[in-house]
């Protein structure tokens, strides 16, 4: 249970909100590389942490992310012309390059001397792992850009599904660290089966357990936490356990357990207080499905499930296209796609969930710890300016891994899936 003040600390990211300050100290995915794939492409509307931005790729292939409002009269640059290494405002023809330099002022006489004196707000940009990343914090605190957790090597295969969701980022992330709900909400897609570990088919995911009430254990870490959901396996339940470990990588990433074909990560990027850019990512080697196949499997296909701006077609107004006939015939939710099933749950909590009247249980351990850690982090940032995820010991995200598998009951779950580098640097403590 959170107080109103704690809930605001956890959820609010706009303006001077401490949680927004934490987010600004990290590299954030602004948009997909595919959204600005072509040189001189159409400008793309971007909104992060309540701030309106515009992204574009210039004539030379460089990407810029700028304040969306022209510095002259503050009209939108989203509708501007992308030409000859700059974005030109339609109103008076002012032209701005990817670094925010105002290189032309068509409405000003050459004698005015204004060109070169003014600078438009722009943010540092990096392109990697299928995303355009931006850093929105103080220049003197900018960390080096490092490969994200889902790009451990440059040749990692990555498929990304993106959906814009109409609610706060924290209640979405809480879904990603809630292992117990998958056995119920996703029961038609995550199917118990007599297999030796998690398997992926083109129709569903198989797992070797019928246990719907996992026992949870959690270890705090310098990057956030790792927790284990321990279930009884279908076979050898007297001597073995089925363990799935999930990592919360502060402030917005969740690395969930893999299957035999690919690994999975979720990014929960706050657009503002009540909207989130949600990314569901498969990554790994040659068995990772293509982007088209991945999006079709998840019900996140552009032009079918989401529009070209990644806004979903399933909404409360059309009951999220829930198929009640399919439910009568055995489908648990009547909703196609794992993330679409989650979205109904997340959005019906409201734009910002009111957590005051919840009744939490033992299966909510990870959610309780996430709230405790992030509220504490927001207070620490407000008091000292120190951002969670920016302190030592720093563990390169590309060395972090999650785990799933059937193991002997004597196995210490904290050793499963951990790299030698993480073990050497880690200083976490066990939370029962």
Account of the protein in words:
- This protein is α+β, with helices and mostly antiparallel strands.
- The protein is 17% helix and 26% strand.
- It contains eight helices and 22 strands.
- The strands form five sheets. Strands 11, 15, 16, 17, 18, 19, 20, 21 and 22 form a nine-stranded antiparallel β-sheet that branches.
- Strand 2 and strand 3 form a beta hairpin.
- It starts with a helix and ends with a strand.
Q: Helical element count? A: 8
SS content category: alpha+beta
What is the CA-based Rg, rounded? 23 Å
Number of strands: 22
**What string gives the helices and strands in order?**
HHEEEEEEEEEEEHEEEEEEEEEHHHHEHE
Uncertain residue segments: 427-432
Spatial gap, N to C terminus: 18 Å
Classify the helix fraction into a percent range: 10-25%
Strand coverage percent? 25-35%
Mean pLDDT: 95
Per the principal axes of the C-alpha atoms, what is the gross shape? globular
